[in-house]
Amino acid sequence: MSAEAVGGGQPRDVFLSAFRRHAAGVAVVTAPGPAGFTATSLTSMSLDPPLLSFGISVGSSSWPAIRDADAFVVHILAGDQRDVAELFARKGADRFADRDRWEPLPGGEPLLYGVAAWLLCRTQERFIAGDHRLVVGRVVGGHTDPAHPPLLYHDGGFGALAPHPSDRARSD
User: Fold this and answer.
1) Could you give the CA distance from residue 103 to residue 98 in angstroms, rounded to a whole number?
2) CA–CA distance, 55 with 39 (Å, rounded to integer)
């Protein structure tokens, strides 16, 4: 690797380019309000206790609800839920207009239907991270559905996870 390759681009441009090459699962985070947004910044942090984190822009219309929420739900979207990812990413969209796609949990947190998994979290911490906030949640409940492979985001587009050929060979 040359010195030009290491320092050749502007940090913001290199950052954006690098993360376009990073495949990420797609999640929707919802909070009472109802409010919600699409997140690809979801990270598992700890098993004991079970903690996860995500980033949210302070300019997001969902930030005030997330900021003030004692609890929220993280939904791991299924491979066939591109429309859900796009709806919750669209500015000004009425994300909860279709009452056949969600229901409120007892605490008011919206639960979306048809997801690969969902996790109910209690807000543990919020940290300043540039123009975003990093929110840490403690998982207190949830459900997984192995019948639904996850939705992925890569290089500006969506896809579904397919088993690697060597994984198929082991299962035969």
Assistant:
1) 10
2) 8
Spatial contact of 124 and 136, defined as CB atoms under 8 Å apart: yes
Say how many Å lie between the first and final Cα of the chain, rounded: 41
Q: Name the CATH architecture for the domain at 25-151.
A: Roll (2.30)
d(CA 63, CA 150): 25
Q: Could you tell me the sign of the dihedral formed by the alpha carbons of 126, 130, 132, 134, in that order?
A: negative
Residue 82 near residue 153, CB atoms below 8 Å: no
Tens-level pLDDT at each residue, the chain (172 residues) = 444 455 566 887 887 777 777 677 899 999 998 999 999 789 899 999 999 999 999 888 899 999 999 999 999 999 999 999 999 999 988 999 999 999 999 999 999 999 999 999 999 999 998 888 899 999 999 999 988 889 888 777 787 766 667 765 555 4
